[in-house]
Amino acid sequence: MSRVLLRLVLVGALPAVLVAVWWVASAGSTQVYWPPLETILRAFPEVWTGQRLRADVLPSVLRLMGGYALAAVVGVGLGTVIGSYPWVRAVCEPVLEFLRAVPPPVLVPVIMLFAGIGDTMKVTVIATGCVWPVLLNTVEGVRAVDSVLTETARSYGVTGAARLRHVVLRAASPQIFAGLRQALSIGIILMVISELFAPSNGLGFAIVQFQRGFALPDMWTGILLLGLLGFVLSVVFQLVERRVLGWYHGLRASARRSP
After folding, report:
1. What is the C-alpha to C-alpha distance for residues 226 and 173, in angstroms, rounded to an integer?
2. Long-range contacts: 160-164, Cβ < 8 Å, 24+?
3. Measured between alpha carbons, how far is 40 from 221 in angstroms, rounded to an integer?
């Protein structure tokens, strides 16, 4: 128990130190672009009211979740197929390497031509960027499944969907979740970028509007809110990962305790 408390203290110490440094460094600042942290925090509840949260933050989160979910389904599905069959991997690998090298923001104008300027475009941009870490990690996870495990399952008559669910995906799930974690941070970045093109609402749109209107303390509150959103989503992801991969973390803990 003491180790858990110590870890919580250490985890919370760095953010507290950074906030304290920011507070001291910006105290008394008269620069337009560098307002005091006290001014930013005082403006925060005035800017991000319930109405603005519903108008800007909620649509951003819904687009992020839509694009992220689409990338997860496509990435895991295609990654499982590509990782399971060497000939499929040999055919697809050059194309995947080419597409992966194209930065998703560059594709925004192209996506706008086909998907318009609405939510469909923003969700597609997020999904286009998030799919690659999920897809590639799934391929590697499926490829790394122990052949002895698969042969044992086959000998016991575990085939088809049961083999895919209980053997292949379960063995590859730690690496799949590693890809999902990477995709989450990419999705937050692309959420903001997608809202800079033909925007109408959203967190990125609000931050740019504050900047263009020289409401710089309000702009900084948007940046803080974006960081808090990323932190909350990361915590939620860790809770889900701990629950789904409880068996995996248990095995690792047992391996560390064994002599």
Report:
1. 29
2. 164/80
3. 6
Residues in the chain: 259
Q: Residue 71: count other Cβ atoms within 10 Å of its Cβ.
A: 27
Nearest to 59 by CA among 183, 186, 195: 195
Residue 186 three-state SS: helix
At 145, the pLDDT band (50, 70, 90 cuts) reads confident
Q: Are 75 and 179 in contact (CB under 8 A)?
A: yes
Residue whose entry in the numeric block shows the structure tokens 């009211």 = 49
Per-residue tokens: 121 = 């475009």
Tell me the range of 110-114, 146-150, 210-214 where mean pLDDT is highest. Answer: 210-214
Give the pTM: 0.88
C-alpha distances in Å from residue 226, one per residue of 32, 188, 192: 21, 9, 9
Q: How far apart are CA 165 and CA 159, in angstroms?
A: 10
Angle made by CA atoms 46, 50, 56, in degrees to the nearest 5: 95
Tokens of 197: 């093109």
Q: pLDDT tens-digit profile of 191-225?
A: 998 888 766 788 988 998 998 888 889 999 999 99
Could you say which architecture CATH assigns to the domain 54-257? Orthogonal Bundle (1.10)
Residue 215 DSSP label: -
Look at residues 139, 132, 208, 210 and name the one whose alpha carbon lies nearest to residue 169.
139
